[in-house]
Amino acid sequence: MSAPDLRPPAVPAPAIWLTGAAGMLGRQLAAEFSARGRAFHASDREVDIRDPLALREFCRGKDIRWIVNCAAYTAVDRAEDEPDLALAVNAGGVENLARLAATLGATLVHFSTDYVFAGDRQEPYTEDDPPRPLSRYGWSKRQGELRLAACLDRYFLFRVSWLYGIHGANFVLAMLKAFREKEKVRVVDDQFGSPTYAAALAANIARLVDDGSERFGTYHYCDRGVISWHDFAAAIMAHGLRAGLLKKSVPLEAIPSSAYPARAQRPLRAVLAGGKAESELDFRVSDWQANLGEFFREKARLEEARP
Ligand SMILES: NC(=O)c1ccc[n+]([C@@H]2O[C@H](COP(=O)([O-])OP(=O)(O)OC[C@H]3O[C@@H](n4cnc5c(N)ncnc54)[C@H](OP(=O)(O)O)[C@@H]3O)[C@@H](O)[C@H]2O)c1
């Protein structure tokens, strides 16, 4: 006869709901939760965050304790032409999630952007600095921040900048494609900021959820270091060549923003001061070069594994 099992019954971990799970950060968070053996519910477009009934229906019977919202309208230039849609998703959708979280007693983790700032000063922006978005996308994200804070106490709001990762559309993947396909690449050298590697952010968020942190509030998060887009592009080329993902170097021309007109106005220097997330949430923050190196190791591994 086998000995009786005296261990206490396993307590299921509180349920997590990841929205925007098919996006760049959403896919990275899904991978991170999975790697940690953390079960989670996932949704994307099929559960429209603009629709409060659909949201309520989705979480029926699921005992959701954490909502991690990666759903967003992120087309910065297009938002100039469809501001109502940007607002409906980035403010209305966030308000719906915040109201639902309040009803459920759940915690909402949400992401915003350095584009809520004007970027017209030298010093990094702290969480207490007043936002002044220049674009309709930035404005819609700022409205989302305000509605989140108005509807819910149990929230974490992370402003991140220059997000990139293995999945989705982002500057690093766009540069790699350009370096492979073009004879010469032009990149602006008068806009400064800090990249955010999605995998490093996702690891910090998953730890926050695992720890059940209640240090709610607004936090800035990005990799350490301040660079221009041109600096970033040059580093991407160097890493790409070293990793064997690029066969040859391509002339890289530095241009002013005025030579690369875009629909939406971007901040020239929206640098986020990230100290609070490190000191209060114990977030691990790495140098942007180190994280770019991690990205390239992962990218090379994935390309090698591809049949
Ligand atoms: N990317 C950056 O450089 C950057 C910088 C700073 C902050 N952020 C913020 O970081 C967060 C994650 O960004 P990301 O780059 O991972 O975004 P993303 O790749 O655009 O992913 C957003 C996801 O949300 C989905 N979605 C759009 N509208 C929806 C709706 N009404 N209901 C449900 N799902 C909807 C999108 O579907 P479709 O693809 O079909 O639209 C997409 O799968 C966002 O809050 C963003 O504002 C991003």
Throw out a few tags for this protein:
307 residues; alpha/beta; Rossmann fold; two-stranded parallel sheet; binds NADP nicotinamide-adenine-dinucleotide phosphate
* Helix vs. strand class: alpha/beta
Q: Main β-sheet, in a few words?
A: 6 strands, parallel
Would you report the number of β strands? Answer: 12
- Which compounds are bound in this model? NADP nicotinamide-adenine-dinucleotide phosphate
- The CATH architecture comes to 3-Layer(aba) Sandwich
What letter string, H or E per element, gives the SSE order?
A: EHEHEHEHEEHEEEHEEHEHH
What's the CATH class label?
Answer: Alpha Beta
Distance between the termini: 50 Å
- Uncertain spans: none
CATH topology: Rossmann fold
Strand content: 15-25%
Helix content: 25-40%
Topology at a glance:
Blueprint: E1 15-19, H1 24-35, E2 41-43, H2 52-59, E3 64-69, H3 83-104, E4 107-113, H4 136-151, E5 155-160, E6 163-164, H5 171-181, E7 185-188, E8 192-193, E9 196-197, H6 198-211, E10 217-221, E11 227-228, H7 229-242, E12 252-255, H8 275-281, H9 288-305
Parallel strand pairs: 1-2, 1-3, 3-4, 4-5, 5-10, 6-9, 7-12
Antiparallel strand pairs: 8-11
Helix pairs in contact: 1-6, 3-4, 5-7, 7-9
The structure holds NADP nicotinamide-adenine-dinucleotide phosphate (NAP).
Descriptive notes:
The structure is a single chain. The protein is an alpha/beta fold. The protein has one domain: Rossmann fold (3-Layer(aba) Sandwich), CATH 3.40.50. The protein is 40% helix and 16% strand. The protein is built from nine helices and twelve strands. The chain has helices spanning 24-35, 52-59, 83-104, 136-151, 171-181, 198-211, 229-242, 275-281, 288-305, and strands at 15-19, 41-43, 64-69, 107-113, 155-160, 163-164, 185-188, 192-193, 196-197, 217-221, 227-228, 252-255. The strands form four sheets. A six-stranded parallel β-sheet has the order 2-1-3-4-5-10, sandwiched between helices. Strands 6-9 form a two-stranded parallel ribbon. Strands 7-12 form a two-stranded parallel ribbon. Helix 4 (136-151) links the parallel strand 4 and strand 5 (155-160). Helix 3 runs parallel beside helix 4, helix 5 packs across helix 7 and helix 7 crosses helix 9. The model has no long low-confidence stretch (mean pLDDT 95). NADP nicotinamide-adenine-dinucleotide phosphate binds at residues 20, 22-26, 44-45, 48-50, 70-74, 89, 93, 111, 113, 141, 160-163, 168.
